[in-house]
Each structure stands twice: as C-alpha cells, then as structure tokens.
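User: I've been trying to design a sequence by hand for this structure and keep getting stuck. Would you show me what you'd pick, starting by listing the structure so we're on the same page?

Assistant: Good idea, let's start from the same input. This is the structure you sent:
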C-alpha cells in the first residue's frame, strides 16, 4: 500500500496580515469617498434659491436684558429647519459687558 501526500492548492491566495501600505491605500480611498460625499451634499447649499440677502434696516431689532443698555438683538431662523439659527447683536460703541 502506497500513501500519497495530497496538496490542496487554493486558487485565491489568502492574505492573513495586511501591510501598512495596504492600510494606507484603504485609508486614502475612504478619505476621498468622504470628501466627495461632502462635496455632493454641499451642492444643495450653494443654490441661489436657498440664500437670501437681508439688510439690517429691514430686521426687527429687540432689546435684550442680558446685554448692556442700548444693545439690540435679532434672531434669524427658518421655521422648517429646526436647530438652524443665527443671532445678530447690535451694541453701542462704549458698551461694557
């Protein structure tokens, strides 16, 4: 009786340990994909319809008790966009906080 040694050869080489170079390639690809996704999402904000120019004279300024006397405050926000707001302060030149 003759025993033969059978060697199984895999068609696909198995890589157990990744090298630093492979890791850096994957990291670079992931960074590029994230940057492209951010650029694509930012295109919505660049539309002319979504921006509006407002002059300070047309705003309704109100007194705020937490600021010095004579200081005015206005809050700019969109009712549909929760969490998006901008606060503008108008303080006199010689005001002290």
């Amino acid at each position: 009786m003759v025993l033969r040694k059978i060697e199984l050869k895999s068609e696909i080489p198995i890589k157990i340990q990744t090298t630093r170079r492979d890791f850096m390639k994957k990291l670079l690809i992931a960074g590029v994909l994230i940057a492209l996704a951010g650029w694509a999402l930012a295109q919505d904000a660049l539309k002319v319809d979504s921006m509006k120019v407002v002059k300070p004279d047309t705003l309704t300024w109100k007194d705020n008790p937490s600021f010095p006397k004579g200081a005015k405050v206005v809050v700019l926000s969109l009712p549909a966009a929760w969490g998006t707001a901008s606060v503008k302060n108008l303080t006199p030149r010689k005001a002290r906080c």
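That's my pick for every position. To get oriented when you compare it with your attempt: Strands lie at 62-63, 72-77, 85-90. Residues 20-48 form one domain.
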